[in-house]
Amino acid sequence: MRISHTGPAPKRRDDWQTIKTLLPYVxxxxxxxxxxxSFLILAKIANVAVPLVLKEVVDYFEGKxxxxxxxxxxxxxxxxxxLRFAASSLGELRDAVFAKVTQxxxxxxALQVFEHLHRLSLRFHLERQTGGMSRDIERGTKxxxxxxxxxxxxxxxxxxxxxLVAAVLLKKYDKWFxxxxxxxxxxxxxxxxxxxxxxxxxxxTMNDMDSKANNKAIDSLINYETVKYFGNEKFEASRYDRNLxxxxxxxxxxxxxxxxxNAGQASIIAAAVTVLMWLAANxxxxxxxxxxxxxxxxxxxxxxxxxxxxLGFVYREIKHSLADMExxxxxxxINTEVKDAADAKTLDARSAEVTFDQVDFHYDxxxxxxxxxxxxxPAGHTVAVVGTSGAGKSTxxxxxxxxxxxxxxxxxxxGTDIRALSQESxxxxxxxxxxxxxxxxxxxxxxxxxxxxxxSEEEVIEAAKAAHIHEFVLTLxxxxxxxxxxxxxxxxxxxxxxxxxxxxxLKNPPxxxxxxxxxxxxxxxxxxxxxxxxxxxxxxxTLIVAHRLSTIVHANEILVMEHGAIVERGSHKDLLNQQGVxxxxxxxxxxxxxxxxS
Length: 598
Prior knowledge:
alpha/beta, ABC transporter transmembrane region fold, 6-stranded mixed sheet
């Protein structure tokens, strides 16, 4: 069978490598693992002993007759019941002991993936597809649970039981019983492995298409308004359905091949049981075996082949689980682009001087973004950066936050290269009010308190008052408990900006970045928020990335950038007197403002 699907074929992975990746998380609970294995082995010994006791009871009645008193087999019958109880209770005890191992491993892996994703660079997160990635993590954690439980509770127990049953058959009966048992097992296992490996391409394709379809769905729902603006509901449904169609084809072939596998396994088991029962019946007919022996062999075969039939399902599901886990573990292999130095220092300062020293930077070696950029922002001063789109203004803020490392020169805080500082301590000293404020789908209180999660309620409200949003919040039916919606879409642009200002005030950082914080707002809202921004920049080292020049006339120094380089610098008055790039930009904006007013 072949299936076609868009994109490259899903790659094969080393399943043993996946298991090796999982083992350290399990090994943390090794005492529980050993205890669970002990209970498992004891349960299987009890399980194998049950047919042996049953044989003795049957043989006793066959030899003594029904008229004989039953006082003697009461002990055997009681032992039979005790062994049944032991096999069941030890199995439950094993499950209870191992539960902590499974859930603990899932928790630690999920947490490590989550933390690792936050350590990855901005480059990764700009390129990621959130819907598919979240589905990969969800399937991966479920796969871990299935793998751990069924490897320990089905494959290992079945193997232990096979060994015990084979030992009894070899010791008590003709060698052909053991030979038939082992040959049939070998054929069953080889058949199951071969067909399951062949079927894996269908499951991998299903996973791939499921992730892609989920990406399309999440992306479309996030951009709900855009879809509606252009009336593209059918177009979005068509994009979504293209991946679902390929998924459906793979799912059908997966189910058909499963039916073929099940039929083949059933045929092997039926043939083996028939041969074994013929050997046992022939032994009874020739008086080489008793009726109890026939019952024993039949009971062993039922105990062995019923879980063995289930073993085929378990093996398939384990292979599926490994396929589900592969993308989640691959996330952990993505290298962290920006790392703390081994001897990274902790920044602890109430005031800060920021220096860009001959900074070069590029996202791609073929295209330079910043070229020999040098400037300083003394503690408590404000420097504004202006220029055309693509000049590299916002890149300065990203480098200051160390979302990327410079490719030449250095960014320094209080004279120390920020690459020598821990990222956590550096970012604690910087606050930002971005152009597009993105809020969590939680309450207004939560979003303000996010600036300093350990702040008291009084401090949060004081920050809201300083940002002039407190009065607005009080007019809402739920006040500070009002949910802002996905990405804060229930609030207007000005309201979102005030929330951003409030949480920055709450953070109270010595360094402040205003990244075109008002360019998306209307003139009246912009003027109101500008006053608030100027208040919070007092006595803070501030970098302003601006589009509207009227908002930065108060800056101590203004940098004009073109094509990644600083072409002019000075105060607002000095730059106007230079009659250069800044003067032309100012004149154009003043002209536009006059036309808007008229």
